[in-house]
Amino acid sequence: MSGFAGVDLGNSRMKVAVLDAAGNPVVQPFADGSLHFASSIFFDPNGKMIFGEEARNLGLMDPSLYVYDWKRHMGTDKVLYSNGVEYRAKDIAKFLLQECSRNFEARFGELLAEVAISVPANYNDRQKEETKEAAKAAGLEVVCMPHEPTAALLGNQVHKRGDGLWLVIDVGGSTTDISLGEVSGNNVTVIATNGEPKLGGQDFNARIVEWAQKQFKAKHGFEINPKDHAVEYQEVIQRVEQAKVSLTARDNTNLVMSAKGCVLNLMLTRQDFESLTTDLLEKILACGKRTLKESGITPDKVIGILPVGGPSQMPMIAQAIEKTFGRKPTCHCEPHYATALGNVIAGRLEIEQQGRTVDVGGRKLPPLNLSKRDVTAHAIGVATSADDRRMTNSVILSKGAPIPSDQTRPFALAEPGQTGAYIEILQGTDGAPREECLLLGHFDLDNLPPVFDKPHRVEIRLKIDKNGMLMASAYDPLSGRSAELTVDYKQPKPQKASA
After folding, report:
1. Measured between alpha carbons, how far is residue 463 from residues 58, 218, 396, 398 in Å?
2. Does the pTM of the predicted model rise above 0.85?
3. pLDDT tens, 426-446?
4. Burial per residue of 326-350, b for 16 or more beta-carbon CB atoms within 10 angstroms, e otherwise
5. Residue 19's beta-bridge partner residues?
6. Could you say which of 1.10.10.10, 1.10.630.10, 1.20.1510.10, 2.60.34.10 is the CATH number of the domain covering 376-490?
């Protein structure tokens, strides 16, 4: 067994896939025999970190030592736990990956060296970079970082099911990603991708929690909240998750809540749940419609719709997909594990493209006769001055550009005789006001020759690598001077830009 795995680092569950002796992707069990474990950590007061279901159980006793629901904070500075040392989302990811590595070594007797880790298609550059840094800090080399719906296409092995268009609807714990992929021979190409970065299973859970709290308050006069009833609130969170899962197979379920000696036994029906979350479902469907519209594809041209992730198994989602797109969802592998299975295939492809041979159990696998290509989920450009002197985004790399991509565009300096330029790289739609865009980084291009008799142009080059990571540079043809992107990932502050 080679020291290589595909990792689905989910917000709720973590799954790992490896290659078997025949080169087929298989899900790797964890130490307790399960095929996934909860992506949560309990920080024992004695300094030990406890993972998975055990962490969830201990979290009921002392929620202040328990970290879950962390992935949405990747790429932010939010402190999720502190014991004298502050831990952020990238630190939680590191600890989870270390646990994954320990499990791999215990199972196969070999160190896990390389991983393919998927990321939400809507992740920005900072979120991708922090995922990569987390893996490196865990002692792992990231071979590639496919988008989650793209990995799911590979995990469902659509390349073995004939030519055609496939729509992936990936509803995870914290995000929703939808991609349209095309299979032509042994080529899998993503045509378009969209997503809702703040819409996932946890948001459906939150609606039940809110509803249940109102019912409890109506009967007992107070609300179970995390500030005043930390342990009881954590119990509500877990029971709500169990209730949601129960409604996948049943028409109704019981939800018991208790605090300060007061108890309430609620009957939650599937109809109640669906009415509470109608707007969330509409956002998912709208995202799918937008993806098809941007591609110029009508639903009847799609040969299959692939549901991915636990929340996608809710009956309301399956029924809405069929009603909206005229086709029932299709599963060619377990939806919970599609992304992990696809990751190990994507990683194998990347290793082979590097000219290396994939070795499993001492057997060298023949090369895969397969290729894949992804697209960007965001437009990226440079801040420029509009006619009314407002700073807006001038897109260089459009949304849906193939990954990898490399584009260069000239821009005139703002003033005659200008000898320096402050250039900002923005993520946002073309023409969007600067303050509404995400600032990815900046250049200071100094000591330029003054030009008064003609426009002075500098060239801005944006390059997206195989993982969708941004590299950027600025070049002045007159002086030969250049500068490279300084990443700072902040919301832009009002100030005059120079290009």
Report:
1. 46, 57, 10, 12
2. yes
3. 999 999 999 999 888 888 888
4. eeebeeebebbbbbbbbbbbbbbbb
5. 25
6. 2.60.34.10
